[in-house]
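BUG: 3D viewer hangs when loading the predicted structure for this chain

Environment: internal workstation, default settings.
Expected: structure renders.
Actual: progress bar stalls at 90%.

Input used:
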Amino acid sequence: MRKAILFSVALGMISYQGFALDRHVDWRSSSALKTEVPKMFEEQSTIRGVVRDANGPLAGVTVSVIGKSISVQTDANGAFSIEAATGDRLRFTSLGHAQQEVTVTSGTVNVTLQAEDTALDEVIVTAMGITREKKGLGYAVQDLGSEELMKNKTANIVNSLAGKIAGVNVTQTSGGAGAGASIILRGGTSLERDNQPLFVVDGVIYDNSTSVNGNSLFDGGSSTNSTYSNRVMDINPEDIENVSVLKGPAAAALYGSRAAAGVVLITTKSGKEGTASVSVNSRMISNWANRLPEYQNRYKRGFYQQDGTLMEGDATTTMGSWGAKFGPNDVMYDNMGDFFQSSTSWDNSVSVSGGSKNGNFYLSASDFRQNGIIPGTEYEKTTVRFNGQQNYGILKVGANVAYSSADQLSSLTSGGLYGHGGAGAVQGAFIWPRDMNMSHWLNEDGSKYRPFDWEQVANDFDNPYWIMNKMPRTDNTKRLTGSFKASVDIADWWDIHYTVGIDRYTQKTNRFTEPGSGVNQIYQNGLLSENDTDFQYLSSNLMTNFKKKFGDFDMNLLVGTMAEMTDVEYNGRKAWNFIIPGFYAYTNTTLTDRAAAQQRTQKRMVGVYGEYRASYRDFAYVTVTGRNDWTSTLPIHNRSYFYPSVSGSFIFSEFIPENNILSFGKVRASWARVGKDASPYVTNTYVVTPAEYTLYNNGAGVGVRNDWLRGNRELLPEITESQEYGLDVNLFGSKLGLEFTYYKNRSINQLMQPRTSQATGYILMWTNAGEIVNNGLELSAKVSPIKKEDFRWDLTLNASRNKGRVENLLPGLDVLYVTDVQVGNAKAASFNGGNFMAISGSKWLRSPEGHLVLNPQSGMPQSDGLVTHEIGNREPKLFGGLNNNFQYKNWNLSFLLDYRIGGHVYNGTDYYMTAMGMSTRSMDREKLTLTGVVKTGENADKTPIYSDVQTFEYETGKMYQIGNQTRSGEDVINSYYQSGGAYNLESANYMTDTNWLRLRTISLAYSLPKTTLSKVKAIKGLTATVTGTNLLVWTNYKGMDPETSAAGSGAIGSSSVGIDYNGVPATAGVTFGLNVTF
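Structure tokens produced before the viewer hung:
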């Protein structure tokens, strides 16, 4: 790391020296010493005229006399009058039109301005960092500049993409400090692999995994999580110049196996030629929970027994709120409202940049400090970056180096913090009874306050404040990324580029459990756990480019080779049963009260690639690519695989006479195949040391055993084949731009690990089986309803629809589960012949006519015996965003509306609150009416015979004979809603086909006018902003924010998006920002 930093400083000095040398002025020949005597007696006269465009007279055009401080604007009829002399030159400028200059030769000057067609000139960053004209692309690519990204700046750049790019589905997993976000492009391509796109920063692949250190069976942790960071958060958003999203395989094919799910290209800032500038940014952010669960305020803690006896107060050991009603003198605590607090965060950064014609540099530093809405949760990030480039004739060299340090305090799991038997911090806050003061968590002597005198401390429901204060968990990630680039322009038709890159980070997770916590019995005397992950990625990329023009043809040939190596090492250790109380160290335990684990994975890949591009007279374009990879993760006879692509575009507007409607039109099409290799070591079968045995055997070792997962030496790479067709048009003088895309992706040879026969000695086995088919539509529209010199309104609409289905799984495999997030009987799943992002669950038994089949004794609904019904689809029917931007002189107002139509969300939080008597749906306990049929017999073919529709009623205060039991109405009604009760056998009771429209961001900015800044020479620019985030959410969903993912920001398989289960509530907030440029 020291060598990298020294190299960066040295290169920066070189760049600065080059910059300084170029500023040397030869005053002997400087034009600054030359003077020109103006003409003193020019004859002035009034010049009149009309300015038009293709649509008629043009209002708001600025007409100025070059060299003089005289300017006017055209009126509503396009007319103007200005004082000028014969020979003067008039300049006509209007937003959306090409600037024009005219020499005055008479008293009348009429001008027709031509619309600026951005589609003809727009360039965009594509694969391998190559800049191309967008009009020549045969596939869909969208990009965002730094100005647009910073309008809703977030610590996580992924969140800044939400609603702004068609086909990009972003999920902010929770409102926790440092919480991650997931991003999916055009649906998933893998059933059991990561479906997030590849991130490439300045030409180097950038890891965006969500590491869940210490969250495993090894250290007793829970594998469900909602607040871990995804690693792209390590980037300082202020350093980003541009983000290009390559959505389809045709766009991303050159990047190889890791690009099957698309690519997000991030280009960081560089210095500009001219005087060095300093930019200072400071923001203060205030956040609060935007939506909390609704809970009942009618019933207290306790429960009714079968005979109607009420157990409450000291007589009960339950957390459930199934007791008596609150009386007028009872105290009701707002435990949830008090637990989730308002928080304040600070974000400060500074950058220095400059350059000359032979070099440039950019240096930045940032500090972000976020306090969470849960007390005791924090996230801090510090970054430093240096980018530099220097030109030496035909040779260009450059380096980009970035260092970051991120600290997260008390990262939270979804379904119980750290996976212990009691409630987690968030979970506990949701179900803590209203008649118990949750802030009372310590006794006067500092010991744990235990509201229930259970025999086993392990059965305690830990108070959320106890968890946050006595069971701390920290995550620290230090990261260094860098690249060195060199290019040689051998001739005007031949150049060579070489890039070597590194991405290295260490993540350390420390966890401590206070003695007496409600955890597994083995940890009752405390637990200390440390988990370290060392990640390193190295890459080398050499490519050469040939370009030549033959008459009307432009041709370009690119060939290259790329080598990659990934090395990940994990080390975990823990200790428990400390000999000396209060001294928590590994040396303070016996050998049998310690455990350790180690794992290392390495992967190498080498690829060769090529791209051929040709165009004819700038209206017909074709691109052909091919890449072959050799990977170390597949069997020797299958580790080499080739995948091609072809794309083309045709600008048909070149053959349509000029008109006032169509100014640009293009059709495009592409076809591509992209491979995806396996994870390391899945071809072999291993023996392992079973750490799980150690947990329940007082730490005693047990040797080794066969792994439960069998390898496969016949595995093939996954292959995604894509077709894409599109239409791009600009209408009405480029005031309206439309991009329409249809795509179909088929991903075959799915790498998966289904159950195998136990006769093999294994539980799971790696194999190739199954397909994912995605069909989708995308629409992007850009409209400029108003374009005037002082006022402009720009509007962008993105709309997307994707339908993902699963086909051809293994025989007998009807449903596939990837995550272990299960609430009641509901679980995220993929169904053979059904939806990729489905929800599985249980259903009530119904007659052929659809009536509930009730228990003939109790009248309660019954389960049909299955928990594998496809009960919902988490994929939205339509999603996108509407982005508005208003510019009036030095004021800017922008707001983004983010919408989703359809897609089920399972409210697991409400399920748990209902089971504990805290939800509003459990509040109606006076009377229960159940209607349905009962089974009265069977036909000869064993089909059931049902009665006519019957009604069962239960009321409080009454006793009922149910079978051989006498039960109170209170007991029957309450047990209907409790865990395992009949109400919870219908998983769909907690599911909503969700729609939402949210005000994702609204921002108002004011920049000081240049006339004001000219009086303060040291300041080049000053902008003040105020931004609101998630201030309004309109939705039919009754839970917390429907944008949720119970297992966090990882997107393995169909992920857990749409499963709402005890996550940290999403936040709303207001940000005050100030940017000063010197």
